[in-house]
Amino acid sequence: MNKKIFKIFMYVINIIFIFIVIAFIFEKSHLLYFLPRIKTIKSLIPLAVNKVAEKPQCYKVLNADVSYEYSSEDYMVFYVDCSTSENIFNIERFFVTEDELKKDKK
What's the structural domain count of the chain? Predict the structure, then answer.
């Protein structure tokens, strides 16, 4: 009987631990900040790509996304990775703020 109670106790502890780990991952990744704004993000990423693609330093756009490091709950910053020449290993990262994109959109 004690083994059965111990197994149930360990099962409950494992479930609690899993929830703590998931909460920690969401807290560190800022994912909860950006889930409600996913439509805005989807509409602004192409604008960020177009803005950076116009720069003479950008030969070809390779990647673009929200910068979780520099963004906050109220303020989004996007990064765009560009190759600076035909050699795709020469990469430069450009940052564009949400405010810059909204000004250009008007």
Answer: 1
